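Researcher: Structure prediction, please.
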Amino acid sequence: MLLAVIASLLLYFLDTQLDYFKPVRAALSTAVYPVQKIASFPDDVLRWSADLFQGHQQLREKIMTLEAQNLTNSVRMQKMQALESENMRLRELLGSSFRLQERVQVAELLSVDLDPFYQHVIIDKGEAFGVHEGQPVLDALGVMGQVAEVSQFSSRVVLLTDPSHSIPVQIVRNGLRAVVTGRGLGETLQMEFLPHNADVREGDLVITSGLGGRFPAGYPVGTITSVDFPQGKPFADIAVDPAAHLSTSREVMLVIPGEKIDFGVTYPLQAEDPESQEQSVEPEAVVEQDDMPAEST
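Model: Predicted structure follows.
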């Protein structure tokens, strides 16, 4: 027993101090390595399988998360595009309102009448917002129509293309006055009561004349697209393309003809004295009756 202890201490001393058995230890490690790999193989397989399934599950969860994020971002992008389009329309509308002299009130379309014989839309402003029958309605580009019926919180607007709607106009180039009437869905407007010798050309800009008493003068109505002088008819056949986007505009402006804008300050057109108001109104009524027919709805 003693000899074994002495031999062990001697071998330990020789190995630690002189590295005498290093080649032997290396050879034994090489010989034992295959046994160690075989012994650890089951554990390595289990660990590799667990990592594989865990990685596959994590990958699936990550894919699902990314797909959900992509879907959410797509919906947000669509909403952003819609908001951007609405913002552009509102900016155009705001810019148009600054170019007008009269006060305006912005409204939004609620619904469109699908009846092909009536060109009407419903807006989200009514009597509670000061809307009244006959009030002019515009978009950012020109006249759309006028208010035909008012309820408490909404109103019905008859468009220029409605066959029952007429509006007094004049041609910018020469000041020639006429009346424009709607001809139905998808049709151009018809300029009425101009003889064959009238000075009318394609491309002429048509604006409101202000003689009807409802639409202030100077608002764009449309552009003349064709001029025809049919034989046997007393009046020319003149087509006018509306300036307003009647089928696409979502936001509109309700014009308040009785008030003007002056550097952000609103004031009435007519004097505050009732007597002066009556004197200023009566001549205008005579002009409406004698010179030009009023708008009809």
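Model: The domain at 102-290 is CATH 2.40.10.340 (Thrombin, subunit H).
Researcher: Thanks, that helps.
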